[in-house]
Amino acid sequence: MVARLLIPLLILVGFTGAAKAQEREVPYWATIRASELNMRVGPSADYKIDWVYRRPGLPVKVVRMMQGWRLIEDPDGARGWVVARLLSPDRGAIVIGEGNTELRAGGAGNAPIKWRIAPGVVGVLGGCEAGWCELSVGNRSGWISESRLWGAGTP
Length: 155
Description:
- The strands form four sheets. The protein has a five-stranded antiparallel sheet with strand order 6-5-4-1-7, with no helix packed on it. The protein has a five-stranded antiparallel sheet with strand order 13-12-11-8-14, with no helix packed on it. A two-stranded antiparallel ribbon has the order 2-3.
- The chain has two domains: about 25-90, SH3 Domains (SH3 type barrels, Roll); about 95-150, SH3 Domains (SH3 type barrels, Roll), CATH 2.30.30.
- It starts with a helix and ends in a 5-residue tail after the last strand.
- Strand 5 and strand 6 (about 80-85) form a beta hairpin.
- The protein has about 160 residues and is mainly β.
- It has one helix and 14 strands, in the order H-E-E-E-E-E-E-E-E-E-E-E-E-E-E.
- The longest helix has 21 residues, at about 1-20.
- The chain has one helix at about 1-20; strands at about 30, 35-40, 50-55, 60-65, 70-75, 80-85, 85-90, 90-95, 100-105, 115, 120-130, 130-135, 140-145, 150.
- About 15% of the residues lie in helices and about 45% in strands.
């Protein structure tokens, strides 16, 4: 008897959580979840495909929401509509700027250099503090200046 009452309650809580996630304030950061994501000129599958992303983990800025669609901005400034379920709330970042930069052992300019990292590299974003962010790329991680990342900070 208790199980019969508990299952519908758990389902309701699950739907409430999913609905709550759709109520986020814009702008906010997200990442591409799919291995292929169509960016359209309008919020429907009836609109023309403007661009196809093939880079899971790429950070995007969500600037508007409409039902199951999100208007996103990519690191190059291109904007278009994508299906919301193909985005992840996980934070990511892409290295920007000219030339290689350092991935350091700690969040300071005098911390030992672990690796050098090139513009265009995408990673999983950790915490940021005092102008430095933790970034993981594959099995390597370290700290990088926030100014060299797109996807960090306030959207």
